[in-house]
């Protein structure tokens, strides 16, 4: 083992210590202030979990998960197609890349009302808003991935008689795998943000709707329990993708 | 005299001007003939157009004027059935195992699926790396990677092998051993080989004829014939003749290298 690991504690140990420290801080501050807006960790755990027995909340969690899954898959598909088309040639790259970055830079919450106008205030607008958040990071990672392919690999493939389809299948796609995973992780967080924003401000159902209701009715313990559930959801998605990524990147 | 397999007919090539610069005349009316089974080396100062000429012959670059011919046919694009390449930097796919790298090359070349495995294994064996079939390129040394590249090129079973400084990234000892291996392999395979190199010793050790290039624009300054049968052994390398040939080559090159350095300086100011 390296010198470093023999002197320092395992990162896992310090990581857990930091998390425990943060929870203690939370507890202390939670007990200090007014219970209208903030709730100590212990109370969130003790009474917050009750919300998960309310059928309405359960349905909301289910709705949001479903919407998120759809938004994520669509983000991936559209982002991949968008990224590949832009990265296809120097010409398309120089034409469309600046436009893509411009669109990506727009704070999309400002055009949420447009989404509601087009897609109504049901699940469609949530999915669309999630996709509009999720597909850009996928596209940008895919483009960065394609740009990173070593030209010598393409030259060498051409010299051996590779067709465009063979180059795509044997070189572009496998080369893209790591950047695709980066894009997927960014996209899952971004799509979750998009879906929640749409639920918070524009829709009658879903988790976002309940976070608003709990904060407006001063029930911080329930609010934090719900946020906790969301955080766990995000962590599980992220972690499972990291595992998958590891399996596909043996060669690195 | 055996018939010529590769012919270069007054090939000139000009690269278009980069933004704000002037265009580069890389090759100026080159003529050459390379016979079947011959091993030739291109040597010359950096930037004189050796790689450009190799790529014209390999069909990777269309020359501005003139033409390269392979077996009497004008070259219009890559000829994967007749020409295999080995490049200076590793052109192996990092995500594929050594064996898969060779198999993918065969797939590109159009070899049917069930024939790829046996051909690839045999090629790997011929360079002595059969034990590393399941390794990934990053697990190999630089010399081993180039041997895999050699195995891949051999597996394509082309008549012609083009090598652009295949040993440049290797240390002196490894490249000399590699050179001896290559010489032995070539004696048994009867391939026609063009090798671009900066190493005088390598050129003398391996080549039947050495084409010495002038500084840019590249022309052929001289052709040196090394009349010594393959495979060439360490005995040849330590012989009096070897060092005489090497010195002769050095004399031919010296002025051109100085001229090339002068050229580049002017280009800068
Ligand atoms: N794609 C390109 N675009 C513009 N100019 C180029 C291009 N490729 C090569 N050149 C120019 O053409 C000249 C010849 O290049 P080439 O690569 O053939 O030289 P070389 O003899 O192989 O040099 P080296 O020994 O350094 O590899 C150089 O001056 C180089 O600047
Ligand atoms: Mg070169």
What does the model show?
The complex is a heterodimer of chains A (252) and B (269). Chain A has two domains: 31 residues; 206 residues, MetI-like fold. In chain A, α3 crosses α11, α4 packs parallel to α7 and α4 runs antiparallel to α9. The two termini of chain A are 20 Å apart. By secondary structure, chain A is an all-alpha fold. The model of chain A has no long low-confidence stretch (mean pLDDT 86). Chain A is built from eleven helices and no strands. Chain B has 269 residues and is an alpha/beta fold. Chain B folds into two domains: 188 residues, P-loop containing nucleotide triphosphate hydrolases (Rossmann fold), CATH 3.40.50; 67 residues, no CATH class. Helices cover 39% and strands 23% of the residues of chain B. In chain B, a hairpin with an 8-residue loop joins β1 and β2. Chain B starts with a strand and ends with a helix. The model of chain B has no long low-confidence stretch (mean pLDDT 87). Magnesium ion binds next to α1 of chain B.
Give the secondary structure arrangement, pairings included.
The complex is a heterodimer of chains A (252) and B (269).
Chain A lengths: L2 H5 L3 H22 L8 H8 L6 H33 L2 H16 L6 H8 L3 H25 L3 H9 L4 H39 L3 H11 L3 H29 L4
Chain B lengths: L3 E12 L8 E12 L3 E5 L6 H8 L7 E6 L2 E2 L8 E4 L11 H12 L3 H14 L15 H14 L4 E5 L7 H18 L2 E5 L3 H7 L2 E5 L6 E6 L8 H4 L2 H29 L1
Parallel strand pairs in B: 3-8, 3-9, 6-7, 7-8
Antiparallel strand pairs in B: 1-2, 1-4, 4-5, 9-10
Nutshell version of this structure?
The complex is a heterodimer of chains A (252) and B (269). Chain A has 252 residues and is mostly helical.
Number of strands of chain A: 0
Tally of domains of chain A: 2
Range of helix content of chain B: 25-40%
- Element order of chain A: H for helix, E for strand: HHHHHHHHHHH
Total helical elements of chain B: 8
* H/E element sequence of chain B: EEEHEEEHHHEHEHEEHH
């Amino acid at each position: 083992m390296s010198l470093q690991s023999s002197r320092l504690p395992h990162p896992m140990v310090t990581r857990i210590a930091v998390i425990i420290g943060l929870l203690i801080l939370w507890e202390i501050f939670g007990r200090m202030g007014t219970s209208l807006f903030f709730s100590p960790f212990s109370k969130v755990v003790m009474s917050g979990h009750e919300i998960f027995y309310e059928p309405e909340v359960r349905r909301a969690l289910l709705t949001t998960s479903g919407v998120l899954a759809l938004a994520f898959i669509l983000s991936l598909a559209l982002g991949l197609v968008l990224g590949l088309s832009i990265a296809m040639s120097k010409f398309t790259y120089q034409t469309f890349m600046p436009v893509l970055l411009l669109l990506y830079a727009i704070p999309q919450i400002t055009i949420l009302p447009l989404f509601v106008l087009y897609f109504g205030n049901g699940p469609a607008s949530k999915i669309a808003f999630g996709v509009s958040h999720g597909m850009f990071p996928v596209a940008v990672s895919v483009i960065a991935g394609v740009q990173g392919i070593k030209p010598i690999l393409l030259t060498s493939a051409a010299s051996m008689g590779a067709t465009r389809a063979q180059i795509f299948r044997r070189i572009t796609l496998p080369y893209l795998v790591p950047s695709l995973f980066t894009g997927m992780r960014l996209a899952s967080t971004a799509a979750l943000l998009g879906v929640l924003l749409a639920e918070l401000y524009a829709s009658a159902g879903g988790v976002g709707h309940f976070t608003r209701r709990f904060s407006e009715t001063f029930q911080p313990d329930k609010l934090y329990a719900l946020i906790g559930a969301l955080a766990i959801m995000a962590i599980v998605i992220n972690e499972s993708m990291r595992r998958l990524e590891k399996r596909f990147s043996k060669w690195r | 005299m055996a018939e010529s397999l590769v012919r270069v007919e007054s090939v000139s090539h000009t690269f278009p001007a980069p933004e704000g610069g002037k265009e580069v005349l890389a090759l100026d009316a080159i003529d050459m003939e390379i016979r079947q089974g011959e091993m030739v080396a291109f040597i010359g100062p950096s930037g004189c157009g050796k790689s450009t000429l190799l790529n014209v012959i390999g069909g990777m670059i269309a020359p501005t004027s003139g033409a390269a011919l392979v077996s009497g046919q004008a070259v219009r694009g890559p000829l994967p059935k007749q020409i295999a390449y080995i490049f200076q930097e590793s052109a192996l796919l990092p995500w594929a195992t050594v064996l898969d790298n060779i198999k993918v090359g065969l797939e590109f070349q159009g070899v049917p699926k069930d024939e790829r495995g046996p051909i690839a294994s045999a090629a790997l064996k011929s360079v002595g790396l059969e034990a590393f079939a399941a390794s990934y390129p990053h697990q190999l040394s630089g010399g081993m990677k180039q041997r895999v590249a050699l195995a891949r090129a051999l597996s394509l079973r082309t008549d012609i092998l083009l090598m652009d400084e295949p040993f440049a990234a290797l240390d002196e000892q490894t490249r000399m051993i590699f050179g001896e291996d290559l010489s032995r392999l070539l004696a048994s395979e009867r391939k026609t080989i063009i090798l671009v190199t900066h190493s005088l010793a390598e050129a003398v050790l391996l080549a039947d004829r050495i084409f010495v290039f002038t500084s840019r624009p590249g022309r052929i300054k001289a052709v040196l014939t090394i009349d010594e049968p393959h495979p060439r052994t360490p005995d040849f390398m330590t012989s009096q003749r070897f060092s005489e040939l090497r010195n002769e080559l050095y004399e031919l090159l010296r002025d051109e290298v100085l001229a090339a350095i002068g050229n580049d300086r002017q280009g800068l100011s």
